[in-house]
Specification:
It is a single chain. This protein is of the alpha/beta class. The chain folds into 4 domains: 170 residues, Beta-Lactamase; 42 residues, no CATH class; 155 residues, Alpha-Beta Plaits (2-Layer Sandwich); 244 residues, Alpha-Beta Barrel (TIM Barrel), CATH 3.20.20.450. Helices cover 54% and strands 18% of the residues. The chain is built from 23 helices and 20 strands. It has an 8-stranded mixed β-barrel, surrounded by 4 helices. The chain has a 5-stranded mixed beta sheet with strand order 6-7-5-10-11, sandwiched between helices. A hairpin with a 2-residue loop joins strand 6 and strand 7. The protein starts with a helix and ends in a 16-residue tail after the last helix. The C terminus is likely disordered. The site of one calcium ion has 4 residues, from strand 17.
C-alpha cells in the first residue's frame, strides 16, 4: 500500500490531478458554449411560445373584446398568465379601452441571470396581436399584448448550463479516480517495485537478483526497462568477473598475484586450524635474476619467469597453491600437511626441477633459487607473520650454500642485530666515526712500498672495527653507496695532502657492486678527483671478481669509462670466482689480486696461483698477492714472479700517521706502480 505522502508525490497522483483539472476546465468551457448556444436558441423558442400563446388565446380574447366582457377578458388573462414564460398581459377593445391587464410580480434574479436577460432583444419578447371577428364588416375588435419574461428564460438557460457543468465535473472526478487507480496499478507500483529491486542489487554480484516482468508488462515500456536492466546487470556481472580475475591474477605468469595467494594462505590457515594440519609457506626468490634481466634483457627475464612459474606449478598437488608476489619472488602454500617431512619432500621436488636447465628463447640457462620456509602453527598464526618468517629464512638461504632453509627464531635475532648495526652505521657516518687505514703494497723483489690499500674502519670508543664486521651489512642496506663516496673523498683528500708534500703514492680503493650500479658513479668519481686536484693515475679501484662476472657487458662499459678518467682497475679476490680466460681478455683491467685463501692455502692452491700468474703474464696484467703472512710465502711468490705483495708479513692496515711514519720515507716520489700495462 502507498502512504498518503508517497501517493501525493506519485506520478499517478499527478496525472490524475491533471486529468481532473483539465476535464473540469473543459466542463466549464463546454457549459459556456452551451450557454451561448442556448441563448441564441432561446430567441427562436420565444417565437414559438408567442405563436403558441396567440394561437391558443386568440379566439377567446377576440370574443371577450367583441362582447366587451371584462370578466371573460380577465379569465383569458388568467389562463395566459399561467404560462411560465408570460409576465405581462393586456387586452384592449377596438377603441383602446383596457378590458384586462395583468403583470406578474418581478422575481429577484441573480446578477448573472439579470445580465443574461439584459442581452435579449426585448422587442422580440413583446407580442402585439390585432384581434378580429371573421363575420364582421370591420373585423378588428381589439388588441392583445403579451410579453414574455426575459428573466425566466435567462434562469432557464443558466440552470441548464450549470447542471451540464456540474455533471461534467462529477464525470471528470470519476474519470480521474479511475485513472488514478489504473495508473497506480500499472505505472506507480511497477516503478516502485523496480526501485526496490534496484535497491536490492548486490554491487558485488549484480546478477544475483532478477526482475521478471508481469505478462501484461512484457511488451510495454516497463517490461522493456526491466528487460534492459536485467541485461545490463548481466553485462555488469561479467565485467566485474573479468575485473576480479585481473585483480587476482599476475598478468605475466597468469598465476594468482600477491593478494590472491595471500588470501589462499589465509583460507589454508583456517582449514589447517580446524583439521589440525600444518601449512608450509615457501618464499622463493630466483638467484641472480637481476643480472639475467640486465644482461639478457627484460623480455628474456619475463620469459624465464613464465617458464619458472610453469615448472613450479608442475610440482604442486591439489592442496598446494602458488602465486607470484612480484619481481622474481613466488609464494607457495602447501596445505593438507600432516608432518614436516612432507614439506621436505616438496622442497626436494622443487630443487630437482631447478636442476634441469631452462630453455628460454633458444638459450639454455642454469637458474637457481633460494627458498625460505615457515610453518603454521609453529612459526606464526597469520599470513603476514608466516610470510615475514619465510622471507627472513629466504634471506638467510641466499647467503648459505643451501637450496632452502626453515625459519628459526635466531634468524629474527640476527636480523634485529643487523638492523641495529645498520642504524648505528648511519649514525657513525653522520658523526664522522669512520676512518681509513692504509696497508702497504710492496714490490716483490726489492721490498719497497709501491702503493697502499685504503681499508675502512669504524671508530667505536678506543676500538677500530674491521671492515669485515660491517661492510656486508652496509652493502645489503645500500648504505655502501654513501659510505663508498666518503671513502673515495677521504682517500683523495689524503692523496692531495701527499701530493702537496711531494709524495706520489697510489691508493687502492675497494668499490662494491652497488656503487658501480649507481648511474652517476663515474661522473661523481671524476668530480671528486677534480675537487682535490689529484692525478687519477694515483687511484686504483679494486672490484671483486664475482661483481665483474655478474653483468659482464655492463661492467665492461663502466670500467672503460673509469679507465678513460685515467684510473687503474684491479680484480680483487681473484680466483674465487669462476672467470674464464675468455672473460678476462674482454675486461679492461690493469691488475689481478690473488685471493688470500690461495696464498695461505695448501699445495693445491699453489697450483692455482701458478696458473693465474702465468695467465696474467700472458695477458700482460700486473699481479698482487694479498694476505702474505710469512717469509716462506714471500719467497715462493717471488720465485713464481708475482709482481707485488701485501699482507701482515709487511704490515697490518694502520692509521695514516703510522703509515706515513713507517713507510712514506721510503716511498717513491715518482710513480712506478702499475707500469706494466696491457699492450
Ligand atoms: P679485501 O679487499 O680483500 O681487503 C683485505 C682484507 O684482508 C682486509 O680486511 C685486510 O685487513 C685483510 N688482510 C690484509 N692482509 C692480511 C693478512 O696477511 N692476513 C689476513 N688474515 N688478513 C689480511 P678488512 O680491512 O677487514 O676488510 C675486509 C673486506 O672489507 C675487504 O676485503 C673489502 O672487501 C672490504 N672493504 C674494506 N674497506 C672497504 C671499503 O672502503 N669499501 C668497500 N666497498 N669495501 C671495503
Ligand atoms: Ca681489496
Ligand atoms: Ca681481497
Amino acid at each position: 500500500m502507498l502512504s498518503t505522502s508517497s501517493l501525493k508525490s506519485s506520478i499517478s497522483y499527478t496525472l490524475a490531478r491533471m486529468v481532473l483539472v483539465s476535464s473540469c476546465l473543459f466542463g466549464v468551457v463546454v457549459s459556456l458554449i452551451f450557454l451561448i448556444f442556448n441563448f441564441y436558441k432561446m430567441e427562436n423558442t420565444f417565437r414559438d411560445i408567442q405563436t403558441e400563446i396567440v394561437d391558443i388565446s386568440r379566439g377567446s380574447a377576440s370574443y371577450a373584446a367583441w362582447t366587451l366582457d371584462r370578466q371573460f377578458a380577465d379569465q383569458v388573462a388568467g389562463s395566459v398568465m399561467s404560462h411560465p414564460y408570460v409576465d405581462y398581459f393586456e387586452l384592449k377593445d377596438e377603441v383602446g379601452n383596457v378590458l384586462a391587464r395583468r403583470q406578474s410580480s418581478t422575481v429577484n434574479s441573480s446578477y448573472l441571470s439579470g445580465w443574461v436577460a439584459h442581452q435579449f432583444d426585448h422587442s422580440k419578447l413583446l407580442v402585439n396581436e390585432t384581434l378580429s371577428m371573421p363575420f364582421e364588416d370591420d373585423p378588428r375588435v381589439g388588441v392583445l399584448i403579451v410579453r414574455l419574461s426575459a428573466n425566466t428564460a435567462a434562469q432557464e438557460i443558466i440552470s441548464s448550463s450549470l447542471s451540464i457543468m456540474l455533471f461534467g465535473i462529477l464525470q471528470s472526478f470519476v474519470i480521474a479516480c479511475i485513472f488514478l487507480w489504473i495508473s497506480i496499478k500499472k505505472i506507480t507500483r511497477p516503478i516502485r517495485m523496480y526501485a526496490n529491486f534496484i535497491d536490492h542489487v548486490d554491487p558485488n554480484n549484480p546478477a544475483s537478483v532478477r526482475l521478471g516482468p508481469k505478462p501484461y508488462q512484457r511488451n510495454n515500456e516497463i517490461g522493456r526497462v526491466i528487460h534492459k536492466t536485467n541485461a545490463l546487470l548481466d553485462e555488469l556481472s561479467k565485467a566485474q568477473q573479468k575485473l576480479k580475475h585481473f585483480a587476482c591474477t599476475d598478468t605475466l605468469t597468469l598465476l594468482p598475484n600477491r593478494n590472491a595467494i595471500v588470501s589462499a594462505l589465509d583460507d589454508e590457515i583456517i582449514n589447517a586450524e580446524s583439521n589440525l594440519h600444518l601449512v608450509g609457506v615457501l618464499f622463493l626468490d630466483l638467484d641472480r635474476f637481476k643480472n639475467i634481466n640486465d644482461s639478457l634483457g627484460h623480455d628474456f627475464g619475463d620469459k624465464l619467469l613464465i617458464e619458472v612459474a610453469e615448472r613450479l606449478s608442475g610440482c604442486l598437488d591439489r592442496h598446494s597453491y602458488i602465486g607470484r608476489l612480484g619481481g622474481d619472488e613466488f609464494l607457495i602454500v602447501l596445505g593438507g600437511i600432516r608432518q614436516k617431512s612432507e614439506i621436505n619432500a616438496k622442497l626436494q621436488l622443487i630443487e630437482n626441477t631447478f636442476k634441469k636447465e631452462f630453455y628460454v628463447s633458444g638459450r639454455l640457462l642454469n637458474t637457481g633459487c633460494s627458498i625460505g620456509v615457515s610453518v603454521f602453527p609453529q612459526d606464526g598464526h597469520d599470513s603476514s607473520v608466516l610470510m615475514r618468517c619465510a622471507d627472513l629464512a629466504m634471506y638467510e638461504t641466499k647467503s648459505s650454500p643451501f637450496f632452502w632453509r626453515f625459519y628459526s627464531t635466531e634468524m629474527t635475532d640476527m636480523i634485529d642485530a643487523k638492523m641495529k648495526t645498520e642504524s648505528a652505521l648511519h649514525a657513525a657516518l653522520a658523526n664522522n666515526n669512520f676512518i681509513l687505514y692504509y696497508q702497504p703494497k710492496m714490490t716483490a723483489l726489492t721490498d719497497k712500498v709501491i702503493g697502499c690499500e685504503a681499508l675502512i674502519r669504524w671508530k667505536k670508543g678506543p676500538d677500530a672495527i674491521s671492515a669485515a664486521d660491517f661492510i656486508d651489512i652496509a652493502e645489503e642496506s645500500g648504505m655502501i653507496v654513501e659510505l663508498g663516496y666518503w671513502v673515495i673523498e677521504e682517500a683523495c683528500q689524503q692523496l692531495s695532502k701527499w701530493q702537496i708534500a711531494n709524495v706520489a703514492i697510489p691508493i687502492s680503493i675497494n668499490v662494491s657492486a652497488k656503487q658501480l650500479q649507481e648511474v652517476n658513479f663515474v661522473q661523481r668519481s671524476a668530480d671528486i678527483f677534480e675537487k682535490y686536484h689529484i692525478k687519477p693515475c694515483l687511484i686504483e679501484y679494486e672490484i671483486t671478481e664475482t661483481v665483474m662476472m655478474d653483468n659482464l657487458d655492463g661492467m665492461i662499459l663502466v670500467l672503460t669509462q673509469l679507465r678513460d678518467l685515467g684510473i687503474k682497475i684491479s680484480i680483487d679476490d681473484f680466483g674465487t670466482g669462476y672467470s674464464s680466460l675468455a672473460y678476462l681478455t674482454r675486461l679492461p683491467v690493469d691488475a689481478l689480486k690473488l685471493d688470500r685463501e690461495f696464498v695461505s692455502g695448501a699445495q693445491q692452491s699453489k697450483t692455482v696461483i701458478k696458473m693465474i700468474l702465468s695467465m696474467a703474464q700472458s695477458l700482460n696484467l700486473v699481479t698482487v698477492a694479498e694476505g702474505v703472512e710469512t717469509q716462506e710465502q714471500q719467497e715462493w711468490l717471488i720465485d713464481h714472479r708475482c709482481d707485488y705483495l701485501q699482507g701482515y708479513f709487511f704490515s697490518k692496515p694502520v692509521c695514516v700517521e703510522e703509515f706515513e711514519k713507517r713507510f712514506l720515507k721510503a716511498a717513491p716520489n715518482n710513480i712506478t706502480y702499475l707500469h706494466r700495462m696491457k699492450n
